[in-house]
Specification:
about 250 residues, alpha/beta, 7-stranded parallel β-sheet, about 45% helix, about 15% strand
Length: about 250
């Protein structure tokens, strides 16, 4: 793909989870524009092939795998197969979903489901991919958190806990991987125009927009550009930090 920024990620291979729509899709587009080879993971059989086909039609190098990331045995087997052929040096842990519920009434199975995708999957992918990055003495891990992971929110016990947890994992991994020139950072989105947020009733969205200094929702590409920056050599002295991309909400 042709782009004045293509040199920024050329020669690198990025694995992006939740790449079938929203933030993950935008990350895939931006990374491809900047020259990265892509490995895209998502369980959505309808959207992921379309994303991969569109990127490939523009000259991007992309392989897409439809997989339920929470099926650990299948995920580990897939990663082993990928690592046998490619060296992944950029990991974007983006996949996630929400099961709203207040702390006093939430079922443990719902908590486990949310923690599984937001904590277990990033932990395992980091565990499996970090050794290759350390061996090459270059790597980038970017975890997608949320403003709610910093502030908390009523009725979002599981989601807020998970998004706070990924920040803890980010900081710990950054300390462990830093000596091997692997950076680990978290991006903290505000209200982004993803499919779930588009469907959210205005009575829930508008109060957030009213508290956002820029007075609008963010676009997925605006977040993706920050993720791409953290994946590039331009961010070589940034690690263990969180970058809030919220239009001023939650500052």
């Amino acid at each position: 793909m042709n782009s004045e920024n293509s040199i920024h990620l050329k020669g690198h291979t990025a694995l992006i989870t939740g790449a079938g729509q929203g933030i993950g899709e935008a990350c895939a587009e931006v990374f491809a524009e900047r020259g990265a080879d892509l490995i895209l993971l998502d369980k959505n059989r309808k959207t992921l092939p379309k994303v991969a086909k569109r990127i490939a039609s523009k000259g991007g190098k992309v392989v897409a795998h439809i997989i339920d990331l929470t099926r650990t045995t299948l995920l580990q087997k897939l990663i082993e197969e990928i690592r046998a052929e490619k060296t992944i040096d950029i990991l974007v842990n983006n996949a996630g979903f929400d099961r709203p519920g207040v702390t006093a009434k939430m079922e443990k199975k719902d908590l486990n489901a949310v923690m599984g995708i937001h904590i277990d999957v990033p932990f395992l992918l980091t565990k499996w991919l970090l050794p290759q990055m350390r061996a090459r003495r270059w790597g980038r891990i970017i975890n997608i958190s949320s403003v709610y992971g910093l502030s908390g929110a009523k009725g979002e016990a599981a989601y807020c806990t998970a998004k706070a947890g990924i920040i803890g994992l980010t900081k710990t991994t950054a300390r462990e991987a830093g000596p091997d020139n692997v950076t680990v950072n978290a991006v903290v989105p505000g209200l982004i125009r993803t499919p779930p947020m588009i469907k959210l009733p205005d009575k829930y969205k508008q109060p957030i927009i009213d508290q956002t200094l820029l007075g609008r929702m963010g676009e997925p590409v605006e977040l993706a550009r920050v993720v791409a920056f953290l994946a590039s050599e331009d961010s070589s002295y940034i690690t263990g930090t969180t970058i809030t991309v919220s239009g001023g909400w939650g500052i």
